[in-house]
Amino acid sequence: MRARRGGIQPWMEAREVNVAPDRFEVTLEDVLLVTQLHSALAVCVYDAMEEAGALLHLRCIVRSAKPIDVTDTTLATELLLLDRCLAALRESAPAARNLQARIVVHLADNPQAAPLSENMVIMVKRYLEDGGVRLLPEDVAAGPARALRFRPSMGWVHTRT
Question: Which of 27, 81, 94, 102 gets the highest tally of CB atoms within 10 A of its CB?
Fold first, then answer.
């Protein structure tokens, strides 16, 4: 009997799904949800028991005319996307009762970026808490854009610059 070449790697590799800015993806499969964060916030939500999860990618656009003002329209849009994301996840995986979330942020090279993203993080955290989602520590960093890879089936979040 011949040994199979390649080892376990072919079975360990997961399909990748790219998540565009101001969009979300929900999955019940073992896939990698990937995105590029540039002046943006990612919400990685998962239930490791049910191996289901979602990635929401929100842009943090700094407007110089209004320093750290986040308008009601912006907040409503962000909350609507977050609400739709969680609703889609709960509809796809109704047995998911142990949702957890990690927020990952990339700060733009702008002095007003930190207060703006801080306001967005607070808003997202409160919404998740109200929805019964357990929050994990957030990851906030400035510098070069961040590549994010999220494997919901395992709750694995990896970022690199």
Answer: 27
Q: Are 45 and 150 in contact (CB under 8 A)?
A: no
CB atoms closer than 10 angstroms to residue 18: 13
Strands 23-27 and 100-106 turn out to be unpaired
pLDDT digits (tens, 9 = 90+) for 17-49: 999 999 999 999 999 999 999 999 999 999 989
pLDDT in tens, 113-131: 788 888 889 999 999 999 9
Nearest to 130 by CA among 82, 94, 93, 69: 82
Answer with the residue of higher pLDDT: 6 or 143. 143
Return all residues near 71 (Cβ < 8 A) that are at least 6 apart: none
Q: What's the alpha-carbon Rg for the chain, to the nearest Å?
A: 17
Structural contact between residues 122 and 129, judged by C-beta atoms closer than 8 angstroms: no
Q: Domains plus CATH for the chain?
A: 24-160 (3.30.1330.200)
